[in-house]
Each structure stands twice: as structure tokens, then as C-alpha cells.
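A.,

Following up on our hallway conversation. C-alpha cells first:
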């Protein structure tokens, strides 16, 4: 790469104007943080997530103005034994007095007593919209807590859609704070092990953390186009820390390597910019291209994740190309100070790729055997993926440590008619209500569904709405069968004959089911988009179709192993004690699509770096085998450190309470671990040796005369 390349020009300017580069970076971060404060981040609305038949139902209900008012419920049970009705009545009267005094409360209904005599509930209707309910639910929780304090012999808890969501996001916030506290020190320790010096270890962590902060700020105005579905902060931290540290690591390792060869600081920075800097740009573009595949899913939550990830990767790339060269130029040899004596000596004694060189030797000697063993290993891990079961997240997948989740679970156990609810809406020129009455009778007779006591068919104009309930949890086979029966048998039989009828079955459970099906339907298109674009990108970058095909196959191998491990861990119970969760028997429906996109992007992160070092050896005139040996050994230390950072950050998420976070953390950690070891140290070198110079087909790399890189001309 010539001296005039973009990465070299940026590095040279930053290195010769370090204070300007550092000042501009700090200004960028400050402006971004200011944006996050000044611009309120937009959240997705309910209609943004409408899909399938449940989306049609929600639209019909909204057009007719028949939506349920937001409601909450207070559940009363005895601390021990059966519920004392007199005591419970006293508490209910106190609740009614406190709750009716709250402006946000529209009506407090009559208490409902459970048939088993173990519980009572108090229904509450709220004023305004669901967003208003979310803003005012704290007042209801506070009032309930006051009555609970006055009646220690009772268990009095408030739950409902608004309070349940609040409890969930409170837990998510606590999990995110825990992840931040753990990931930063773990990453710093790993960098300390990699460099043996405090300043060198701290630079990648600080740059990555500043990139995460800047990305969160820049996303705030973008949220008006791509509203936050609730997971943006998690994803930005997860991906931002991983790639931010890796990009700085690639650059810093190469700069130190060149200084050890006797280069001046400025020469070392420029060579690092021409080699590792170029790899950082390609890696960043690969992650961006992969994440853009989430837009193909046509899902508001995925679009917000894609946007935020693209921003954090772009900021991390920018930082590694500008402020990092400035810091290295300003610090010079002081970047290796202060040294940690034991770690420094250990690093010097082991040398670069000490362990990887020992693994690589038999791989290069027996490439066919090594490739066969690796394929068998990957295949064994991937086989369980063929039996992967996916289902939407629901009440059963939420941590029981969330009080509102425990209350809702108990509520559905004591009051089956408050279980999994389905909403049937029909629009017809006449007979809409009569058709729903016929449907209600048939549904109850089927034994799969029950009517909601005291709730009547709602009608406005030519549209009518009916609520039916399955007494089973929404993730159960019974509830799923009830939805299928309602949509394919009961509703068509009762409603299809109505004149000009348009009908649909919706509700929360139906919406979750439709969402999962939507993800499964979009997955093939996302796979085709991501693999197609990354294949073209690799072919263009290395001018080799063979390299592009090999890259695609290796990515698919890593994904297959990841999905297989997910199936083994979360569809069975053997890992419950290890990871502190209750197995739902399935993988949450959005996880496979999201993991595929992330894994392809992250695997390209150091894959490009490794191939770049192998290509350097080929251009220098080495044989294919020697070029592979040189490229793998010279990059192994960086790849190992980069993979260790990713695995540690992702493993932190596997310790969190939310099952989706666990599945995402386990999947990413396992995939990166396999990708950095079995795939990159065994499969990739064995394939490259077996292909020889054909690996670069149709490009024929010509061997250059070995020359010392100078500031006038730097080669890759």
C-alpha cells in the first residue's frame, strides 16, 4: 500500500499533529455525549412491531377505537395457608381508598375471588394510553406497598402490562450496569496480560469505552428514524467493547512490532497504518455490511440494533485511525511503561505465537488430516442445530426474581381466565357481534379456550371484538394448539360466512407467535444478503474468488457450531445449575437471526487481519506453506488477545438474568472461541496449504523483491 493511502495519510497527520488529533477526538466524544443529553431518545411504539395476522387485528381495533384501556391488577394471597376473606376485604378497602385518590386511575373494579379460595384480585382501569400507564404505574406500586406494610400477614402485589414492563427494564438496566462493571476490568486485565505494560493495556480499553459513549450519543438523533426497541444500549456495549479493543489491539501490536525491529516511532506508526490500519478498515466495513443485513428483516428492533452497531463500529474505526496514532506518536517508547515485571518477562520469554506455533506445526505437516479432524469436530458440534427449536420469549422465559413476573405467574395459576389471552376482531357489513357470539360458544365447547368472566363483546360501527383465554402459559403446547385451532378452524367456521367479513386473531400471545414466524421467514433472505455481500467484499479486497468462497464456508462452520451449542445448552437441563437459569426447552426466536449477523461480522474482524499477514508472506516470495506459517504465527498473538477480549465480554452477558442475554452471550462466546482456535488455527491454514497459490485465484500474486519498508513506500 502506497504512502498516499487514506489510512497512512490519516496516521501521518495525527502523528505529526498529536494534540490536534487528541483534541478533535475529545471534542467528538463531548459533542456526542451532549447529543445524548439534549436529544431525547425515541422508543418504538406498539404499531412499529405489528406483523402478521396479529398486526391486522391491532390495526382493525385501532381504526374502530375499540382498544382496551390500560389496566393493572393487585393480587392478594395469604403468606401461609388459605386466604382469610375478612382480612383480605379490609386490605381491599384500603387499596380502593388509596388507588381511587390517584389521578391516573380511571376506575377500581370489584374484587374477584379465586375458586380455590387461595387468592383475590382487584382490577384497576387506568386513564389515557399505554404510554401514560407506563409513566404513572409507580404511583400504583407505591400505594400497594403501603397497604402491604400494614398487612404483613398477606402478600399484596401489583402487576399488569405496564408494571411488568417496568420490572423487566429495571432488571435489564441492573444487568447492563453489572456487565459494564465486569467487562471493563476483565478487558483491562486481558490487555495487561497481552502487553505487560499499564499504558499499552489502558489505551485500547479507554478508546473502546469512549467509542461506546460517543455511539450512544450519536444514536440519539438517529432514533427518530430508527426508534430504540429496548436493546440498543446492550448491543452497543457488547459490540463496541469487542471491536473497539480489537481495532486498537491490531494497530498497537503492529506498531510495537515495528519499533522492536528498529523503526522510529513515526515509521512504525505509518507501517501499522498501512497494514493493520488497512485491516481495521476492511474489518469495520465487514461488520457494517453484516449488520446491515438486519435491515432486511424489516423489524423495528433489529433496525435500531443495526443502526447503533454501525455507528459504534464506525466510531471505533475512526478512533483507531486518528487518535490512536496521535497517542502512539506522543508517547513513543513510553507506551511500554510502566512495565509489570513478571508479565513483561513472561511475554518476552514466550514470544509471539509460542503456543499457536506448536499447534500449527502438525497442521502444516499433515493438512489433510488436520482439516478432516476439524471438520468432524465442527460437524459434531453443529449436528444438534438440526434439532433447534425456536419460540417467542414469554412469561416462562423471564427471571422469577422479578417481583412482577412472580405475581403474574401466581395470578394466572389462581385465575385461569386471566391466562393467555387472544383477541378476535371482525369487520363486516352486518352480523359482526352475532358471529363472535357464535365463535365464543364454539370455542368454549372445544375445551381449548374459556370466556373471560364479566367481559362482553365490544362493538363500534361495523367492527366487533371478543377476548378468549387459554388457561395455559403462552409457551405451552396447549396454548399454541389453541391459537392454531382458533385461526384455522373455529374462527373461519363462525366468521367466514358474514357479508364482507374481514377478521383476524391477535393479542399478546398471537403477536409473539407471529413475530417468531416473521423472523423464521426472513432468515433465508438475511443469510443470502449477508453472505452475498461479504463474499463480494472479500473477493474485491483480496482480488481472489477462492479466498471469498473459503471465507464464506468458514463463517458457516462457525455459525453451525454456535447454533449446535445453543441447542445443547438451552433445550436441555444439564447446564441450568452452571448458568443459573431454568431451561425453556427452546431458543428465543430472534436469537438465531441476530447471532448469525453478528457472528459473520465479528469473525471477519481478525480473519481479514490473518489473511493480510499471509498475503504479505506470499508477496515477499515465500512458498504457500511458509507464508501461512509466517502469517499465522505473526498474527496469532493478536488474534488470541482479540478473541480473549470478545469471549470475556460475551461471557459476562451469559451471567445475566434475562434468558435472551444468556443465549446471546453463550452463543457469541462459544462461536468466537471455536472460530479463533479450531477454525483459524486448524481449518484456515490447512485449506490455504492444500490450495497453495490457487488460494489467490484468479489473482496471481507476484513475488516482490524483499525490501525494507520505508516511509516512502510501505507494502502489504
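Then the amino acids I'd put at each of the 716 positions:
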Amino acid at each position: 500500500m502506497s504512502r498516499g493511502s487514506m489510512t497512512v495519510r490519516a496516521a501521518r497527520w495525527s502523528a505529526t499533529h498529536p494534540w490536534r488529533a487528541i483534541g478533535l477526538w475529545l471534542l467528538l466524544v463531548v459533542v456526542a455525549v451532549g447529543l445524548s443529553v439534549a436529544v431525547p431518545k425515541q422508543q418504538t411504539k406498539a404499531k412499529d412491531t405489528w406483523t402478521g395476522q396479529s398486526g391486522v387485528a391491532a390495526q382493525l381495533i385501532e381504526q374502530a377505537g375499540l382498544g382496551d384501556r390500560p389496566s393493572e391488577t393487585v393480587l392478594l394471597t395469604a403468606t401461609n395457608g388459605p386466604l382469610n376473606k375478612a382480612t383480605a376485604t379490609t386490605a381491599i378497602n384500603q387499596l380502593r381508598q388509596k388507588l381511587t385518590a390517584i389521578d391516573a386511575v380511571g376506575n377500581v373494579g370489584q374484587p374477584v375471588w379465586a375458586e380455590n379460595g387461595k387468592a383475590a384480585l382487584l382490577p384497576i382501569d387506568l386513564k389515557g394510553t399505554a404510554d401514560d400507564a407506563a409513566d404513572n404505574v409507580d404511583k400504583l406500586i407505591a400505594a400497594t406497598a403501603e397497604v402491604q406494610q400494614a398487612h404483613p400477614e398477606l402478600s399484596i402485589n401489583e402487576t399488569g402490562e405496564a408494571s411488568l414492563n417496568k420490572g423487566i427494564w429495571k432488571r435489564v438496566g441492573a444487568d447492563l450496569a453489572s456487565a459494564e462493571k465486569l467487562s471493563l476490568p476483565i478487558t483491562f486485565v486481558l490487555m495487561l496480560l497481552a502487553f505487560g505494560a499499564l499504558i499499552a493495556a489502558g489505551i485500547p480499553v479507554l478508546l473502546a469505552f469512549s467509542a461506546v459513549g460517543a455511539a450512544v450519543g450519536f444514536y440519539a438523533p438517529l432514533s427518530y428514524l430508527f426508534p430504540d426497541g429496548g436493546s440498543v444500549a446492550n448491543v452497543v456495549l457488547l459490540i463496541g467493547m469487542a471491536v473497539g479493543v480489537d481495532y486498537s489491539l491490531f494497530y498497537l501490536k503492529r506498531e510495537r512490532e515495528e519499533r522492536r525491529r528498529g523503526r522510529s516511532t513515526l515509521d512504525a506508526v505509518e507501517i501499522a497504518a498501512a497494514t493493520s490500519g488497512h485491516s481495521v478498515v476492511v474489518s469495520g466495513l465487514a461488520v457494517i455490511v453484516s449488520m446491515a443485513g438486519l435491515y432486511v428483516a424489516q423489524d423495528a428492533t433489529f433496525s435500531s440494533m443495526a443502526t447503533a452497531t454501525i455507528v459504534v463500529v464506525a466510531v471505533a474505526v475512526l478512533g483507531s485511525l486518528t487518535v490512536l496514532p496521535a497517542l502512539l506518536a506522543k508517547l513513543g517508547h513510553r507506551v511500554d511503561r510502566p512495565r509489570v515485571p513478571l508479565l513483561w518477562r513472561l511475554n518476552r520469554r514466550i514470544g509471539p505465537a509460542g503456543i499457536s506455533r506448536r499447534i500449527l506445526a502438525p497442521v502444516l505437516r499433515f493438512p489433510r488430516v488436520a482439516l478432516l479432524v476439524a471438520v468432524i469436530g465442527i460437524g459434531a458440534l453443529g449436528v444438534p442445530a438440526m434439532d433447534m427449536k425456536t419460540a417467542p420469549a414469554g412469561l416462562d422465559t423471564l427471571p422469577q426474581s422479578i417481583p412482577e413476573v412472580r405475581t403474574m405467574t401466581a395470578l394466572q395459576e389462581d385465575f385461569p381466565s386471566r391466562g393467555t389471552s387472544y383477541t378476535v376482531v371482525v369487520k363486516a357489513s352486518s352480523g359482526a357481534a352475532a358471529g363472535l357470539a357464535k365463535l365464543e360458544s364454539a370455542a368454549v365447547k372445544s375445551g381449548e379456550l374459556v370466556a373471560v368472566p364479566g367481559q362482553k363483546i365490544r362493538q363500534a360501527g361495523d367492527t366487533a371484538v371478543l377476548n378468549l383465554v387459554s388457561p395455559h402459559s403462552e409457551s405451552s403446547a396447549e396454548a399454541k394448539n389453541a391459537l392454531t385451532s382458533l385461526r384455522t378452524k373455529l374462527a373461519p367456521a363462525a366468521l367466514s360466512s358474514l357479508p364482507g367479513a374481514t377478521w383476524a386473531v391477535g393479542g399478546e400471545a398471537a403477536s409473539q407467535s407471529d413475530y417468531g414466524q416473521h423472523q423464521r421467514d426472513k432468515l433465508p433472505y438475511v443469510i443470502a444478503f449477508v453472505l452475498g455481500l461479504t463474499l463480494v467484499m472479500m473477493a474485491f479486497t483480496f482480488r481472489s474468488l477462492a479466498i471469498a468462497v473459503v471465507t464464506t464456508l468458514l463463517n458457516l462452520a462457525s455459525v453451525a457450531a454456535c447454533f449446535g451449542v445453543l441447542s445443547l445448552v438451552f433445550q436441555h437441563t444439564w447446564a441450568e445449575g452452571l448458568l443459573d437459569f431454568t431451561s425453556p426447552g427452546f431458543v428465543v426466536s430472534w436469537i438465531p437471526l441476530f447471532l448469525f449477523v453478528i457472528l459473520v461480522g465479528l469473525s471477519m474482524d481478525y480473519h481479514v487481519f490473518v489473511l493480510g499477514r499471509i498475503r504479505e508472506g506470499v508477496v515477499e516470495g515465500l512458498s504457500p506453506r511458509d507464508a501461512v506459517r509466517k502469517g499465522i504465527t505473526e498474527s496469532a498473538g493478536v488474534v488470541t488477545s482479540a478473541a480473549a477480549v470478545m469471549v470475556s465480554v460475551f461471557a459476562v452477558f451469559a451471567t445475566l438474568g434475562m434468558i435472551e442475554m444468556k443465549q446471546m452471550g453463550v452463543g457469541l462466546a462459544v462461536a468466537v472461541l471455536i472460530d479463533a482456535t479450531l477454525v483459524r488455527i486448524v481449518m484456515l491454514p490447512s485449506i490455504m496449504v492444500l490450495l497453495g497459490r490457487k488460494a489467490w485465484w484468479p489473482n496471481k500474486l507476484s513475488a516482490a523483491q524483499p525490501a525494507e519498508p520505508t516511509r516512502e513506500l510501505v507494502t502489504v
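The longest helix spans residues 161-195. Curious whether your intuition agrees with the design.

B.
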